[in-house]
Amino acid sequence: MAKTPNLDAMAKQGALGLVRTVPLGMEASSACACMSVMGYDPVVYYKGRASIEAKSLGIDIGKGEVVFRCNLVSVVDGKMHDYSAGHITTAEASEIVRSLNAELGAKNIIFYPGIGYRHILKLKGHEETLEAVCTPPHDIPGKSVKDFLPKGRGSGLLIDLMTRSEPLLKHHQINKERLSRGDMPASTIWLFWGSSRAPEMPSFIESYGLKAAMTSGVDLLRGLAKMADMTVLNIKGVTDGSDNDNAAQVNGALEALKKNDLVVVHIEAPDEAGHGGLIDEKIKAIEDIDKQVVSRLRQYKGDLRVLIMPDHPTPISVRTHTHDPVPFLIWGKGVNSSWSARFTEAEARGTGVFIGEGYKIMGKLVGK
Questions:
Q1: How far apart (Å, rounded) are the C-alpha atoms in residues 44 and 59?
Q2: 216 within 8 A of 268, measured Cβ to Cβ
Q3: Hey, what domains does the chain have and what are their CATH numbers?
Q4: How far is CA 200 from the centre of its chain?
Q5: pTM
């Protein structure tokens, strides 16, 4: 169990409970869950994850166009070995994506580089691909990929592009260099989370009367921030992995409070460790957040109200997202204590407080 003395101290002073961030019947994705945490109902506003990430990258989705998430993954002996190609760097991945465009791209097939292993494919005139049944690679660790290739109408083009990427990646200089260092190579692209509609939702200030900003190392969260007309903070050292500079991120967020009423701080490391099945890394990530981020919030001089929570569970046992409710903690000025001993799922459940519609959590924080 992670040692979280700062979270536990705040749990004794603040209000603890459980909240369902993924509506029943919807995919247990970060897109739905994070939209809820930000105070927007996914049932109303969610139109597909790839379109949100495209928004982050400034990619327009025109009439007759669709976008897909395009992961660089590692397949070994026909099985999904690593959904992130060994957490390939953004610089390495960008070179590979440029090669994909040169070899597989066309006027109606365009690859866009993103962050790390996460990228975007845009297709024009192939709206039938949205009918294909696709599976996220992080849902199938260690499983035979042939059983989870896109299926049904519209899957042909997606499978063709995935198949044609394999010889290109096998002989790519970036992968040769990664192999020489003992790093996992990217062996194929994996296409999923297709969508066609450019996302729209009201601004945060329109919805809650507050000027807001966000810091994250993930395209999805940056896209959600842009959808909500939040300021996207560019803080040096903020990444999507275990090398994230937590201290720089929280200090940058607190500095941004001088110009904003609310700042969202998103840290990806625990989720990535969960997908990797890495219990020690997940514990370390949580303990680092407690030591480097939560302690800083406790020491802040001035009025502050804080909401701390995961957007969704990523249990080590299954290595993917689940629909289970998550614990939340609201701490600070004007918050009545629920007299909990620790910040844990069990303690949160014991309070008897449950918010069934996750998007209402933001109203609890800001008093609406």
A1: 23
A2: yes
A3: 5-47+200-366 (3.40.720.10), 65-195 (no CATH)
A4: 19
A5: 0.86
Mind listing the pLDDT tens digit of every residue in the chain (368 residues)? Answer: 899 999 999 999 999 999 999 999 998 989 999 999 999 999 999 988 899 999 999 999 999 999 999 999 999 999 999 999 999 999 999 999 999 999 999 999 999 999 999 999 999 999 999 999 999 999 999 999 999 999 999 999 999 999 999 999 999 999 999 999 999 999 999 999 999 877 789 999 999 999 999 999 999 999 999 999 999 999 999 999 999 999 999 999 999 999 999 999 999 999 999 999 999 999 999 999 999 999 999 999 889 999 999 999 999 999 999 999 999 999 998 899 999 999 999 999 999 999 999 999 999 999 87
Which amino acid appears at position 10 of this protein?
M
3-state secondary structure of 310: coil
Residue in the block written with tokens 């395009």: 70
Q: Which tokens belong to 241?
A: 């992995």
Q: Which one-letter amino acid corresponds to residue 322?
A: T
